[in-house]
Description:
Elements: H1 2-17, H2 21-117, H3 121-214, H4 216-220, H5 236-252, H6 256-259
Helix pairs in contact: 1-2, 3-5
Amino acid sequence: xxxxxxxxxxxxxxxxxxxxxxxxxxxxxxxxxxxxxxxxxxxxxxxxxxxxxxxxxxxxxxxxxxxxxxxxxxxxxxxxxxxxxxxxxxxxxxxxxxxxxxxxxxxxxxxxxxxxxxxxxxxxxxxxxxxxxxxxxxxxxxxxxxxxxxxxxxxxxxxxxxxxxxxxxxxxxxxxxxxxxxxxxxxxxxxxxxxxxxxxxxxxxxxxxxxxxxxxxxxxxxxxxxxxxxxxxxxxxxxxxxxxxxxxxxxxxxxxxxxx
Length: 260
């Protein structure tokens, strides 16, 4: 605004000096008045705008302080609301936890009663599997028992047969040993008998010879011999020994049936 007034002041004297001030004078005065009015209006507008800005700043400060107070109150209010909601949630959680605990305990007790009564599915299925396993094991055990019994019977029969054969062999050996002992005893008895017979015969012969020697008639009797005669000039003891050996050889050659 100041430059416009300066420009208008300088233009007035210049117009008068040029000789055309009669025509331009009134127009210049009106222009100056208009410019001065405009400058006054502009200055008023500027001043009013500055005042409004200051008022707006004050209002903003007051509004900001009021809004800060409102924010604190709102935060406190919301905090209390959140605390109340949290306490309500904790109470509801405790109630639900207690309810869930009771429901679980009820379910477990019911399941335990079903298991004790033998009606629970968790009990029946493993029980069925156990029964199937028991049946299979019993079948396998029965087959194994039969096989073991058969094996034991075979071993018993084999031992029985071996014992019988051993008995027969021992019996035959005992029979042979007893038989051999008896045969030996019989042989000894026969030898003794033969020796007794020979000795008695010799005694008889010797007695007869003595009697003949004592009888005078017998000496004079001639001995008649018909055919070839071999006269062995042996002693009586040698004859007895030979006779005993001959008897022993004959008795040893006899078969077993003849000895019986």
